[in-house]
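My hope is that you will study the protein record below before we discuss the fold together.
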Amino acid sequence: MIRFLILFALTPMLLLAEDKVAIPAYAIVALFSVVIVLFFWGIYKAMKTQKRVYTLALLPFVGLIAWMFFI
């Protein structure tokens, strides 16, 4: 979780840096895939069990949307 917060905080600095920092394409695709899987799993479990704790699986999706907004 700490690594995600650090990445989220440093992304604007990495994008605006003088030296181009290349994030590998496979890392971006893997991150996107994990977020999408967590999103649909969270919705499925929340609807099946009617427990609100499974909605926490939606937080990476919300983080991804916020990250794309700041890019």
The radius of gyration is 15 Å. Helices lie at 2-16, 25-49, 59-70. The chain has three helices and no strands.
